[in-house]
Every structure is written in structure tokens, then in C-alpha cells.
Amino acid sequence: MATPVAAINEYESKIKLLYLQQIEVDRASKHSLKWVVLGGFTMQSPPNEALPLVMLSWFFECDEVKNQGFDGLTGRITVQVNNGTTWTNSAIDCDLTRSVHDVRLNIDIPPFAGPLQALQMRYQFNLIPYSNILPEIHIDPIFKASDKTDAILLVDGMKLHVNKSYLAMHSDFFQSLFMGNFAENSMEEIPIKDVSYQDFHSLLKVVYPRPEFPNDKKCEKLLELADRFLMPGVTDHVEQHLLTNTQLENDRCLWMADRYSLQKLREHCISRIQCSQDLTIIRNSPVFCEYSDFTKARILEKIIDKVEWDEFKRECLDHHHSMIRRSNGVGQIDYKRVRFQ
């Protein structure tokens, strides 16, 4: 449970302009919080009308807040967008827990009359820093001593009774620890350092009977621990979740795919880059600089393929229109004369 303290970050922006490409529209700081806002809009094409879709991204730098002993900030961002005649209101709740935390919001704008060059936008927020009060921890019954356990792991001050063979089957790390010539193999209690009981419990529960499958909040930590403890089964479960059930943003999923060599997820994320706005979000992401050269090259290949395909479709369409103009006079194309140059 989180206990909030007095609000220290209230902010109301001036009116900003949004254009048909995503650009930086605001950069500010207050107290210990810094942030950048990217914004733009694209035109949707439902039948008989054009609808703008506004895309906004806030990138908050929370390091200084966390250095003061807080675990995060919570609150709401409210936004108003004007299409020239009316204001549209929208809001999003946020819980900022990472050092650099991004918040995304898409807003459908009512139809308008005439050409639209820019939209007006303003936003405000009230963010409250908080510190987590850790609940009393009760050890899971699956880690109690029984006739099926033959080793004790000491994790975060908690004693976990485990079965060596079962853990070794799922983890090369524990296979080496239990079966190899290590000093820990002869210890009554084997210390597992630099991991909390809650995180280690979540890791083992993925592969234990009656498993608990990954969710968006646990994915990143599970991948980190699966990499450390050499548990490919956990990695596979997380990747499957990110491929099918996640609500995380594409740039964050791509970062995890790149960092932990999740090939299917990497290709899936890259395939979701369908327009210039998608690419801008990726390029302006705080994790873009951490992408490997290989992943950046794959993104470039995607862009080249997209451009070449768009050019091909444009050439086909131009040729189609040319054939109509050169048709037999009744609006029918003489397909015997159709030739691609």
C-alpha cells in the first residue's frame, strides 16, 4: 500500500500548437521533476469525414524524486485540445515509478470543416510523491519444508525449502550450484544475494506447479532474473505474454526484446512500426539510445521496405489513372494495353 505525502508538483501549461508530425511541444521542470512533451496529430479516414487523432507523450525524469526517498509519483494529467471551434477534454491517470517514465495518451477529435493546419493544446497535472509501506511478508506454503525438499535457499532473510532436482531442471544456474563442485553445495542454507523475496518468489512461481503467469508489471524484473539465473522457460513465458497480452508501449517492448534477445518479440515490435508517428515515438523514446546496432539496423530495413512498397503502390496507382485517361472512351480500361514500365 502506498502512503502519499503533500503534493509538490502542480503544473499548468500555456497553449501549445500540434502539427501533422510529432514534435517536442514542451520542456519544463518543477521542484525535483523534469519532463518533455511530444505531440502531434494524424488524420483518420472514416466514411465521409476526416477525424484528427491527437497523440501525446510525456517523458518524466524522476531520479531526483527517487533520490529523496520516494518510490514514485501518482496523479492525473488532464488535456484540452481545440480543433478551431470546440475544446475536447481528456485525462489519464499515471503512476511514475521508473527513473525515466513515459505516459502516452491518444485523443479522438470531433470532425471539422475545412483544412486543418494545427491544433491548440494545453495540459495540467498534479503529481503526488509517495513512499511504499511494505506489507508483512508471509512465506508461500510451497517453500515450507517437506519430504519433497532437500535444500534451503536464504533469500532476503527468508528460508525457502526447495527441491534441487526440480530447480536444476529449470535452471542451468541451479544445476551448476547444486550439482557442481561449489562450496554452496555443502551449505545447510545457501544464500541468494541481491534479490528480494517477492521477486524471487515471482520467478519460481512461473515454473512451479499451479504457475502464476507474467503480467506487465513483472515482465521486466522477470526477464532480468531469468537472465541471471539462466531460466529460459521463464523467458519464453514472458515473451509470449508480451506478444499476445501486453498493454505496454511498443518502444518499451522492443527494448526488452533487444536486451534479452527475444527474436520473435523484436520482429513483432518492428512490424508494428507502420507510419511516421510510430517511428517518431520510437526515435524519441528514452530507451532508444540503448537499442543495439542490430535492432536499429532492423528498424532502418523496415523503413526502407515501407518506402519502397509505398513508392510501388504509388506507381501502380499513377499507372492505373493513366490507363483510365487512355481508355476506349467509355470509362473502361483496355487491359491489353496495360504494361508496367
From TrEMBL:
PROSITE patterns: BTB. It comes from the Eukaryota. Gene3D superfamilies: Potassium Channel Kv1.1, Chain A (3.30.710.10). Pfam families: BTB. Residues 149-208 form the BTB domain. PANTHER family: BTB DOMAIN-CONTAINING PROTEIN-RELATED, HELIX LOOP HELIX PROTEIN 21-RELATED. This is BTB domain-containing protein. It comes from Caenorhabditis briggsae. The lineage of its organism: Eukaryota, Metazoa, Ecdysozoa, Nematoda, Chromadorea.
